[in-house]
What we know:
By secondary structure, the chain is of the alpha+beta class. About 50% of the residues lie in helices and about 15% in strands. The strands form two sheets. Strands 5-6-2-1-3-4-7 form a seven-stranded mixed sheet.
Amino acid sequence: MTQAVLDAVRDLLPAFRERADETERLRQVPDASVKELEDTGFFRMLQPKRFDGLEADPVDFYTAISLIASACGSTGWISSVLGVHPWQVALFDDTAQQAVWGDDTSTRLSSSYAPTGKAVVADGGYMLQGRWSFSSGSAHATWVLLGGLVSNAEGQIVDFKTFMVPRDKYEVVDVWNVVGLSGTGSNDIVVEETFIPEEFTLSMGDTGRCFGPGQEQNPSELYKLPFHSLFTTTISTPIIGMARGAYAEHVEMQQKRVRAAYLGEKASSDPFAAVRIARAGSEIDAAWALTMANIREEQALVAKGEKIPISLRLKVRRDQVLGTQRAIDAIDDLFEASGGRALAQGTYLQRAWRDAHAGRVHAANDPERALQMFGMAEFGHKVDPGMY
């Protein structure tokens, strides 16, 4: 079944590429593209089988994302973000799962995890309010997952939770006017003070230890992987896909390009051009291979019923942020070597250059923090809880 999804996604790539300019003009992915992806089963890849999901191998999920992003970066980005949320919903209390999928198993959720809102303990749940930014694909979702620090009646921080909020309790504010990933519709979410039941929350402390109450109904090994391993890879994979798309277009361009400044020499005959694509290709392949190998290593431990050590989770983050950097380095090199025609509106290369650098500034792609945590752990120092 998963192979059928991947085959169907491949068939959609020409249409996604054709709509890339429209996606930028709309500042969100066209409804037609989302509907086509829905019809392939893509959004169900990480969804529990009991709600018509596939419970697919996450590497297959990432493969699909890389393919989509190779045609349109913004479409790849929102596909990745919207597509990973069913995995987290599967960890929530069954009451919340039923609320999301009980009547419609095609329901989608967007998110904004930075704890910029305010949550206060109340009887049976929490009072939540605030404003959150960068909720990619929010136009295509009817629920949202929001991060929030929880305070008790005395004002003390007692937890960091994800709050699941239905569409009638939040407003989407159109603020997304940007130069990169402009088609992701990553708008703001505003919640006026509203009550969120306990069952519609998930402690980041629990997810940090690979636990969620929903595991009782969804016992698959898929839902025992680390939250931050899956979610940060969800942010880097579209950028690797963009690099693959940039590589393909660069090669095609160079095969046709004639360099007037060099007496009509064919660019494809330039030995330096050949070296550049060899280096770029290796960087892209290394980014993908290391990232997927680490996910496979975590899967193997889960399959044996063993705990995933912090050292491996930190290695996942190390190679994830460096994979992002490798992909962007490859795009930069290809863009610089492509000549003036790459600047034209409508080319994949200039859009990939903008989109990849936009994706690079996401908190999950912050290299210094992830590398510092890995290095400190290697030196035997205690690493504070963080995004790993």
